[in-house]
Write a structure and sequence with these properties.
Family (chains A, B): Belongs to the isocitrate and isopropylmalate dehydrogenases family. LeuB type 1 subfamily.
Organism (chains A, B): Thalassobaculum litoreum DSM 18839
Bound molecules: 3-isopropylmalic acid
Order of helices and strands of chain A: EHEHHEHEHEEEHEHEHEHEEHHEEH
Main location (chains A, B): cytoplasm
Subunit structure (chains A, B): Homodimer.
Oligomer: homodimer
Number of strands of chain A: 14
CATH superfamily of the largest domain in chain A: Isopropylmalate Dehydrogenase
Number of domains of chain A: 2
Radius of gyration of chain A: 21 Å
Strand order of the largest sheet of chain A: 2-1-3-12-11-4-5-10-8-9
Mean pLDDT of chain A: 97
Low-confidence stretches of chain A: none
Largest interface: A-B, 61 and 61 residues
Pathway (chains A, B): Amino-acid biosynthesis; L-leucine biosynthesis; L-leucine from 3-methyl-2-oxobutanoate: step 3/4
Chain lengths: 367, 367
Amino acid sequence: SNKKLLVLPGDGIGPEVVGETLRIVDWMAKKRSVSFDIEEGLVGGAAYDAHGTALTDETMTDATHADAVLFGAVGGPKYDDLPFELKPERGLLRLRKEMDLFANLRPAMVFPSMVENSSLKPELVSGLDIMILRELTGGVYFCEPRGIEDLPDGSKRGFDTQAYTTPEIERIGRVAFDLARKRRGKVTSVEKANVMMSGVLWRQVMTALHASEGEGLEYENMFADNCAMQLVRTPKQFDVIVTDNLFGDILSDCAAMLTGSLGMLPSASLGAEDPTTGKRHALYEPVHGSAPDIAGKGMANPIAEMLSFAMLLRYSFDMGEDADLLEKAIDNVLAGGMRTADIMATGKAKVSTATMTDSILKELDKL
Amino acid sequence: SNKKLLVLPGDGIGPEVVGETLRIVDWMAKKRSVSFDIEEGLVGGAAYDAHGTALTDETMTDATHADAVLFGAVGGPKYDDLPFELKPERGLLRLRKEMDLFANLRPAMVFPSMVENSSLKPELVSGLDIMILRELTGGVYFCEPRGIEDLPDGSKRGFDTQAYTTPEIERIGRVAFDLARKRRGKVTSVEKANVMMSGVLWRQVMTALHASEGEGLEYENMFADNCAMQLVRTPKQFDVIVTDNLFGDILSDCAAMLTGSLGMLPSASLGAEDPTTGKRHALYEPVHGSAPDIAGKGMANPIAEMLSFAMLLRYSFDMGEDADLLEKAIDNVLAGGMRTADIMATGKAKVSTATMTDSILKELDKL
Ligand SMILES: CC(C)[C@H](C(=O)O)[C@@H](O)C(=O)O
Ligand SMILES: CC(C)[C@H](C(=O)O)[C@@H](O)C(=O)O
């Protein structure tokens, strides 16, 4: 096959949800003749246990040579006391940085059969469908200088640098405008331009980009604190929210939790398109974490990982039909009342991770 | 009187809500013989219009000489295109920094008669009472270097510095532990120690401080993104949340909106106690902003400003009884069904800013 997939299950429930998703991949190969060339690798705590680092150079190279990476989750209490540079998260952050995955797409949507799972009142979230676009390779996550220094008086000072350049802002802005054109045509750009100089530049560049390249799109600037409020107050006012790495981390988690379907939200992290080959680096991962407390118990919800695979089909291989099929099967199973523990509600049927997959496969056979 | 109050109404609805609150101050003087020595000053856009700066040196000096500052709100679209250093917000930020108001107390509570106003389901927020303690004089809000520089290729780079020192973290940590002792005994310290070096130091110092000075208190570390999620999912799990300036800005606004009573939430910003006089600088302000869209229409909710004044009585003058009285009067009026537009609900009586105050004064007369 010319479709090279690198699978990185990681830690906690990562291996379980990736394992279940590979059953879907198998089904696609058998029933739809969609075959992938699959390699597996270690990342996070699993890589640390085996190699003393959260990501080996070899796996890093495999990732850059793959057409797409399917990622599980990293981290766990076992690794809490490791020094910063060895922590499981460093593996994920290195992948993002070295593959230059600057555009992180985090849809926050409420599945019709799951409106009641939200902590918000049903009328506020029913039909909710927001796209949070988070810049993923810049800002305080990666800028230098950073460190912990000793002060003359014997105390310490921990410091980080938050910075953005014009081209970094423009390239994520263009992705936001492209996304909005395929959606409801509205972009909200979020920063703290009243407090941060990187925010002042962000607002200037985005506003200018909208004027020059955003024809026909509705556009607004919003402060990050206000955005957090508005997400809780009336989330349906938003279409595409574009923001930096740190604000995106917090706001996308807030938005994800609003939906009440955290265990079902996928994400895609995309690099720039190569102008000659038309290819781009890409990594797909669920929004949820490694959930060490339920790992190995057969309780995890595999749907976020499966929907990440659906995004992979759509964004990396232009296989929209296959992605639709998988999403439809999942929808039907949920509508039928099956629930893993995290999304259980009265009147529904609680099932294990494997049973959820069984049902989705059966549904795929029927479609 | 030996109680010197500086009143800074500011912009938008600031002058209205401060004006109504001064009617309460008058009542206190007449009926409770509590008299203040009141001066007024300009801040924000109002100061810029009069003097070309968001805060004059003279007003700055008045603030440091006052026993307490009662602040309204700043900002408005009229000032959107001013350069960074002249913006209304700079006045507020200068006050915080030069008065060294490092401890920002932002209670997020749901008033019993207002449970239905929350966007969250009633059972999740009924009885909610969290204290967000935000560090207010450090971090990315004030650290140097910061700026926008020209790059060799003609593009620009906006940059900020995020930093915290051991003593800065310890002093806000001590306030958190003190607050928790008077509340439900639980402290959640929030950072991104998995990503930021300032966060690594923050977690180390807080954890050590808890071990040495936090006896009897429950303590946990939490990542900022997870905290945003948990606030939406089960806000009642928290008692005191202590965090840095930027995370505090976002998380406190998120928590405020959860209550559904944004127009009713006060805040206190406190300096260190002078070891000889026992006095400390203090500024009190509502959590809501200047709301330029409803300014001058007699629609604003004056309660957040009045409750800020109640905090002023309690924290700056140890006048807990008078504070209780005012809070009780407000509670009773709300329980009686009166609502300003922002908190209006079916079956309640919609009233103007002034009528709300009239009713609170009448209630005070009765108590
Ligand atoms: C694991 C962690 C480093 C990561 C982040 O902060 O980006 C996670 O929270 C996420 O949002 O993907
Ligand atoms: C007005 C603005 C500078 C301020 C802040 O960011 O601190 C405000 O949002 C607040 O929370 O008091």
